[in-house]
Write a structure and sequence with these properties.
By secondary structure, this protein is of the alpha+beta class. The protein has one domain. The protein has four helices and six strands; from the N terminus they run E-E-H-H-E-E-H-E-E-H.
C-alpha cells in the first residue's frame, strides 16, 4: 500500500492522495492536510462524473439516431439528433435534442391524429397514430451509462 491518505474510489479501487503523507511524531496541521487530500479526491471524482454525463449524452444520441422512426423520404429526423454538453464548477449536463424536427418529437412521443396525406377538406380524418416509445429507451440507456461509470447499483 502506498504512503499517504487512502480513500475508497467510486469504481471500487483506491485513490491515494500521496502528496499529503502524515507521519507519526511530526507536527502538522492535520485539518489542513486532510482538506487538501479531500480536494484532490474530489477533483478526481468530479472529472469522472463529467466524463460519465457526457458519455451518457453521446450514448443516448447514438441510440436515437439508430432507433428513431424513419420516413419514406430518407430519415432526416433520425439523422438530426444532436448533443450539447456543458459543465462548470460541478454542474454538468448533456442535452440531447433534435435540431431540425423538434416539433415531430412531441407528436411521436404522445401520439396524434392522422389526416389524409393528400390534404383538402374533403379527405378528412383517417385515425389516431399510436405513441412510439423510443425516447424512454434512450433515457434508460443514458442512465445505465452513468450508473455503471460511477459504480452505483
Amino acid at each position: 500500500m502506498a504512503d499517504g491518505l487512502t480513500f475508497p474510489h467510486a469504481r471500487g479501487g483506491q485513490t491515494v492522495a500521496s502528496n499529503y503523507t502524515i507521519k507519526a511524531g511530526e507536527s502538522h496541521d492535520i485539518i489542513g492536510v486532510t482538506i487538501m487530500a479531500l480536494e484532490e479526491v474530489n477533483a478526481e471524482l468530479d472529472a469522472e462524473l463529467q466524463d460519465a454525463i457526457f458519455t451518457a449524452g453521446k450514448t443516448a444520441r447514438s441510440y436515437l439516431r439508430s432507433n428513431s422512426p424513419r420516413s419514406e423520404g430518407g430519415g432526416e429526423y433520425a439523422r438530426d439528433w444532436a448533443t450539447d454538453s456543458s459543465g462548470r464548477d460541478g454542474h454538468y449536463e448533456s442535452i440531447v435534442h433534435n435540431r431540425k424536427h423538434y416539433q415531430l418529437t412531441h407528436l411521436l412521443t404522445d401520439g396524434h391524429d392522422i389526416k389524409n396525406r393528400k390534404g383538402g377538406p374533403s379527405y378528412g380524418f383517417v385515425g389516431p397514430a399510436q405513441p412510439v416509445g423510443f425516447l424512454d429507451e434512450a433515457v434508460e440507456r443514458g442512465n445505465e451509462v452513468i450508473t455503471s461509470a460511477l459504480g452505483v447499483r
